[in-house]
Each structure stands twice: as C-alpha cells, then as structure tokens.
C-alpha cells in the first residue's frame, strides 16, 4: 500500500512539473531565435549576436546589468504618413476615400471603399509622382456592406509626399465601363449647392 501511494505521489509530481519544464526549456532557452531578439536568453544578456558571439563578449565596453537591459516586446512599427482626400459617396451606393501613404522612403496609394450597389465593380487606382512616374493597379470591388481596400505596390519615393497624388475610379464592369465615382487624394471637399 505504501508503494502504491509513493507511485501515485511520484506521478502527480511529474505531471505538475511538466508545465514548469516546458517554460524553462522553451525554444529560445535552447538557443533558437525567432528573429525578434526578444527571448529568454536575450533578456538575460546571453543571446548570440550576429557575429556568433554572445552579446557583450566582444571585448568592448562592459554590458549593463540584466536589470538595465531593454524589456523584450513587440517591435516598434515604422510611422506611416498619409494624405487623404475627403470621403465621397455616389448615388449608386458606393463610398470611397483615396490616400497617398509614405513610410521608410517608400510611397504608395490606397483607396478605402464600401460597395452597397448590389453589383461587383471594377476599380483602377493610379498613383502619380514626380518626373511622370505612375503606378496603376486594377481591383475587383465585391458588392456588400463590408469595407474593403485597394492598394498599389510600394515604390521608392522620388520626392516629397506632396509631389504625389492618387486617383481611384470605380466603374461598372461592362463594355461601356460607366464611371460611378472618382476619388482622389487631393480632391476638394464636397460643397452644398
């Protein structure tokens, strides 16, 4: 009977220690790196640098104490600057707003839309930049009440953000391609009257 209690007790201890063992032996503990440099070894100052030596082991200045090290966390996202025209609405059940965006030396266009017309539409988004540079993309705008977006590829900036403009044109996808709405990044605000 004592052997049975000892066996049960040992089993319980093993089961209770598994989560702790998993937390200690996580992927960063064994030297694997997820590319963010924010794992357990990094927080203790033991992670390898890109040169293959542990951080602080290069013989340079002494590394600050682990308590002074930066806390791991999400990487800071680069700031995106935008210049948008007004949100426009067509009588055909289409809403759109078009913007020029810039981040980290790259510029692109984006149009936000909502298509409640009941029909799928075609959209063409064009970004015009300095020296005649133009980027254009076509998008299918599905019918529905959910908002969507169409975005051009990002290209290296060749000037200031104000040197760029974007225009989105929404049309019926038929032989005539009847234009329903044109939205620009520098469109004037709609006026009453």
Mean pLDDT over the full residue set: 74
For the biggest sheet, the summary is: 6 strands, antiparallel
Low-confidence stretches: 22-66
How big is the Rg? 28 Å
What's the number of structural domains? Answer: 2
- Give the CATH H-level superfamily of the largest domain: Immunoglobulins
Q: What's the SSE pattern? A: HHEEEEEEEEEE
C-alpha geometry: elongated
Provide the helix percentage: 10-25%
Walk me through what this model shows:
With 193 residues, the protein is of the alpha+beta class. It has 2 domains: 2-68, no CATH class; 81-184, Sandwich (Immunoglobulin-like). 14% of the residues lie in helices and 34% in strands. It has 2 helices and 10 strands, in the order ααββββββββββ. It has helices at residues 2-24, 40-43; strands spanning 81-84, 88-90, 94-103, 106-115, 121-128, 134-141, 144-151, 155-156, 165-171, 179-184. Strands 1, 2, 3, 4, 7 and 8 form a 6-stranded antiparallel β-sheet that branches. The radius of gyration is 28 Å and the shape is elongated.
Question: How is this structure best summarized?
Answer:
By secondary structure, this protein is of the alpha+beta class.
Structural descriptors:
four-stranded antiparallel beta sheet; alpha+beta; Immunoglobulin-like; 2 helices; six-stranded antiparallel beta sheet
